[in-house]
Amino acid sequence: MKIATAAYPLDWLDSWSQYEDKLSRWVSEAAGNGADLLVFPEYGAMELATLDGADVAGDLEGSIQSVSDKMEAAATLHQKLAAEHKVHILGASAPVHAGFARPVNRAEFYTPTGQRDHQDKQIMTMFERDPWDIAPGGPLKLFDTALGKIGVLICYDSEYPLLGRALAEADVILVPSCTEALAGYWRVRIGAMSRALEQQCVTAMSSVVGSASWSEAVDEGCGMGGIFGPPDTGFPGTGVIAEGTLNQPGWTYADVDCASIAHVRREGVVRNRSHWNEQESRAQHVVKQDLR
C-alpha cells in the first residue's frame, strides 16, 4: 500500500462548500499521487466550528457542540470521496457526543466500499481533562481491511506501550496528532517510533500545523507527517521510512509492503514483538541494593 499522512492546517471557513472544496482537494491530491491510505490528524475537524462564527469557535464548550453537530455531514463527504477515489481514509478526529457522559475524541475510518467505523481516544491529555472535559471513549479496535490489519492510537495514546501491545496484530498503526509545541510533536513521534519498534510494524503519524488563533483548543499546531518502521531487516536503519518538513502543510508519502512486516517479525535481527512476554516475569523481581 501507499500511505499518505497529512500535515494539515486549520482554516477559517465561511461556508460548507469551502470545506467540501478543501477536503476534496486534499483527497484528490493524495489519490492522484497513488495513495491507498490517507491519514488526517487529531482535532483537524475543529475548523468546522468556524462555520458558526467567532464566538462559537472560540468557546470551548460551544465549539464541541458545533463540531459534533456537523460530523455526520462530514462523514457523508468522506464516504463519497473514499468511494470516488478508491481510497481508505482516516478522517480528522473531532469531539463528539456519542452517548457517553461527556464528548469523546473520535476518528472515523472509511473504506472505498462504503464501510465506516471509528476509533475513540483512550487516554486524555491534561488539557482534555481540564478545562475541556473530553472523556475516554469506546475500546481499541483492529480494522481488518483490504490493505491489511490497521489500528489507530490517537496522539497521546501512542505514548503508552500497553495500548500498542493491544494492537500487536496490526500491520500499520495510525497516529493522528495535534501538538502545539516542538516538544509535544517529539513526544508523539517518539511514541509512534517506539510502538513500531516494539510491535515490529509500521506507524503513520499525521499532524495539525500552523496557527488557528480563533480557537482556544487548537490555537497552534506544530508537526509534520511521518511514516516509521522497526530499524531492522528490510527497513531503514533509522526507522524513518519517510518524513515531511516541520510545519509545512502537505502530504508525506511512503510505500509499505505488509510482506516486509511479516518478514521482519519472523526473521528480524531482534524480535521485540515475540519476546514481549518475557518482560513480565523479569519485571516482577527487582532487587533493591543500597550502595550509599
Walk me through this protein's architecture.
The chain has helices at residues 16-32, 54-57, 60-85, 126-129, 161-166, 182-199, 258-267, 272-275, 278-283; strands spanning 2-9, 37-39, 88-90, 94-96, 104-110, 116-120, 142-145, 148-152, 172-177, 202-211, 220-221, 226-228, 240-243, 250-255. With 292 residues, it is α/β, with parallel strands linked by helices. It has a single domain, classed as Carbon-nitrogen hydrolase (Nitrilase/N-carbamoyl-D-aminoacid amidohydrolase, 4-Layer Sandwich), CATH 3.60.110. Strands 1, 2, 3, 4, 5, 6, 7, 8, 9, 10, 11, 12, 13 and 14 form a 14-stranded mixed sheet that branches. The termini are far apart.
Q: Please give the alpha-carbon distance between the first and last residues.
A: 56 Å
**Counting H and I runs of at least 4 residues, what is the number of helices?**
9
Residue fraction in strands? 15-25%
- What is the count of structural domains? 1
The assigned CATH architecture is 4-Layer Sandwich
Tell me how many strands there are: 14
How would you name the CATH homologous superfamily? Carbon-nitrogen hydrolase
Reported for the largest beta sheet, the result is: 14 strands, mixed
GO molecular function: hydrolase activity
Protein name: Carbon-nitrogen hydrolase family protein
Pfam families: CN_hydrolase
Keywords: Hydrolase
